[in-house]
Prior knowledge:
By secondary structure, the protein is α/β, with parallel strands linked by helices. The chain has 15 helices and 13 strands. The chain has helices at about 1-10, 15-25, 30-40, 45-60, 100-110, 130-145, 155-165, 170-180, 195-200, 205-220, 235-255, 280-290, 305, 310-315, 345-355; strands at about 60-65, 70, 120, 150, 185, 225-230, 255-265, 300, 320-325, 360-365, 370-375, 375-380, 380-385. The chain has a 4-stranded mixed sheet with strand order 9-1-10-11, with helices on one face. α12 (about 280-290) links the parallel β7 (about 255-265) and β8. α4 (about 45-60) crosses α12 (about 280-290) and α7 packs across α10 (about 205-220). The radius of gyration is 20 Å and the shape is globular. It binds ligand V47 and iron/sulfur cluster.
Amino acid sequence: MIAINTILDASKTNPELQKIGDKVIAGERITQEEGILLFEQGSPGWLGALANFVRERMHGHRTYFNRNFHIEPTNVCVFSCKFCSYSRLYKNREEGWELSIDQMLDIVKSYDGKPVTEVHIVGGVHPKMDMYFFMDLMRKIKDHRPDLHIKGFTAVELDYMFRKAKVSVEEGMKLMHEAGLDSLPGGGAEIFAPEIREQICADKVDGAGWLHIHKTAHLLGMHSNATMLYGHYEKFEHRIDHMDQLRRLQDETGGFNTFIPLKFRNHDNEMSHVPETTLIEDMKMYAVARLYMDNFPHLKAYWPMLGRHNAQMTLSFGVNDIDGTIDDSTRIYSMAGSEEQNPSMSTQELVALIRQAGRLPVERDTLYNEVKVYGEVQEPGEIHLN
Ligand code: V47
Ligand code: SF4
């Protein structure tokens, strides 16, 4: 406490920031106005120190990853989000893929005997792949490997499937859960504010619909993640509004595990003219997220999108999770221009990456039960390796 106050003294020249710093240290919640002020006036060093303080208070040096693999059933999509480099319905349909249930089961079987704990199923919104198709897929996955956690389908995919099947969100979610769906990934949230959402993804589920789907999952006892696509047309107030809506739902249900800010990448999409954020802006984004989302247990940097070395740096800006040892089975970011053109990293590489940042690598399952701790922390900053 003494050390962090000393560091934060640097902000005494700005009494408003100092007040926010004092609140955070006292464990008090910050307001929307204060959140905006952090973006506008907080220096990266100060924000990083404060976010790191919160992160260490919550998790010490523990930095989580999991062993998962992705299935992307299709990249054909009925929607036309302007930031998407992935969907192939309207342009270049010949580049589209559509996997059959047997092909997807073959992917699952290719991990037989390997210590993966999760399959992440996410893709485009295909007009013919309906909820019954995916229920069949999930039952077959569970028949083959009952202990594999299925984290699948963004609220965008679910909203479309439920509407097409003419079932309510409550009914549809119950059916999907019974068929094997364990939790929801955080995709499709983008930015909730309608004036920005209309410019980037006008035709898919709106913010209220996205939140309703996650709330319904939470009420069934399922957990989920939440994302925010930042660094395009939105202003700081839209980021804070987005995080505030998530924070309020989390107060109600407690069902979110992780918040994942996603940096907009501008390669090969209809928003290629929009410049990408700088690394400094990215680090500030993570730090403010850690400070604002006080009821989200975890903050994740998704390394295939950010790049592994930038993701490593976020570990000093509030982040305590860097996703998984995924194989080269996800294409959404390499297609959007991420420097990670072949996003696979072995457990050894991921563990080394976390250690280099002075943190303690901990393998987790989807629900953050610890699978293996790679070392032991004695004193802050001092890590004893196995
Ligand atoms: O919703 C699409 C994003 C998301 C671009 O829950 C883009 O553990 C940047 O949500 N630039 C899908 N982002 C991926 C996703 C996700 C990924 C990893 C883990 C989890 C989790 C969730 O990808 C979309 C959209 O926001 N996206 N295009 C782009 N050009
Ligand atoms: Fe479809 Fe998702 Fe791409 Fe939007 S972001 S066009 S919903 S695949």
